[in-house]
């Protein structure tokens, strides 16, 4: 099943084309093409993601990415990668004479896209220029995320689905993160424990099948990625701060930093539940910076920044390892899946890998490039969703900021 996926839940506009071989007990995904526009540089000046700006940028970039995909040969003629088939090599991707399209259809598309300035015109231009792609389904993120941003992707996807007459599937962004591991030629054995850590979510999820999700525990306040971003900001670094804190912590380790030079708490680490709290940890960093700088009277030295980043990451790692261990003791599983943008962090990857080996459980991680937001994970989640018999009608698909499983 060839799926074109669209992701606009936060600050990445992403489109991907994935060939998913799927049955009720087997999924194998082969990425054909992935296009992404990161809005990070635009949001940096706001210190976080600003929904109205995200919405405007998605509307500007989604058609540009689609045009890029349609202009490449992959989408009009997807060949079996195992063969050297050259069929359709000479067929142009563009249409010589645009077909006369029903004015009612254009009016419907205009109504869908008119709220974003320029989106209808840009989309119409593409639809009149390029051939209908060789795809079976379109998948789009319906939530969770920023609703104004989600709506852009949904309406854009609805327009393509209507014009090309290709079924549309609504997908869940968090399921996308979990299923990103399937792009790595891995198999999830059930029951599985999934741990999601992103900018908006921190949750432990038990899976009994590809369609059954039960949240075992989650953060009571900040998500892990959010706490990395907030601590980075306190240290004077731009959004998103996760990679910067990770880099400083690594430099501190290389320089021989010891846990104990700076001491931070590990909130909720010993509670009997599987919940988390990171806002207290962030506040402790704030107080520590105040003490060390005499309330801003003296600047924080580079060495102290390294030590704070290091101790913060050690605290986060300790909490994560404890909660994963507790979850597996309480709910034994055959596979441990770790997903979400924060698992782009190589230190966390190595510490979790070590712990999984000690616990004797198979660990599945997404590739680093599939860890942060992307559309290939949405395509895989869409293919899995398509097995579900009670799929939402295209016209009923809506953005849902708090969408759960
Ligand atoms: O999953 P994601 O791309 O977007 C959401 O769905 O939220 O996650 C983004 C989060 C940000 O908070 C970012 O700072 C964090 O992931 N992140 C990292 C690293 N790379 C991204 N956190 C720690 N270490 C990293 N290397
Ligand atoms: Zn995400």
Please give a structural write-up.
- The protein is an alpha/beta fold.
- It is built from 12 helices and 10 strands.
- The protein has helices at residues 40-43, 51-71, 103-113, 119-129, 147-164, 173-179, 224-234, 242-254, 279-292, 302-330, 346-359, 376-385, and strands at 2-7, 12-23, 26-38, 137-143, 168-172, 192-197, 202-209, 212-218, 335-339, 362-364.
- The longest helix has 29 residues, at 302-330.
- It is globular, with a radius of gyration of 23 Å.
- 48% of the residues are buried.
- Zinc ion is lined by residues 173, 177, 198, 341, 373.
Structural key phrases:
405 residues, 5-stranded mixed sheet, 40% helix, globular, binds 5'-O-[(R)-(carboxyoxy)(hydroxy)phosphoryl]adenosine, binds zinc ion
Low-confidence blocks of residues: 78-87
Topology pattern, helix = H, strand = E: EEEHHHHEHEHEEEHHHHEHEH
Distance between the termini: 23 Å
Q: Please tell me the overall pLDDT.
A: 92
- What are the bound molecules? 5'-O-[(R)-(carboxyoxy)(hydroxy)phosphoryl]adenosine, zinc ion
Largest sheet strand order: 3-2-1-4-5
Based on helices, strands and strand pairing, what is the structural class? alpha/beta
Instruction: Kindly state the number of beta strands.
Output: 10
Helix content: 40-55%
Main sheet record: 5 strands, mixed
Q: Over the alpha carbons, how many angstroms does the gyration radius reach?
A: 23 Å
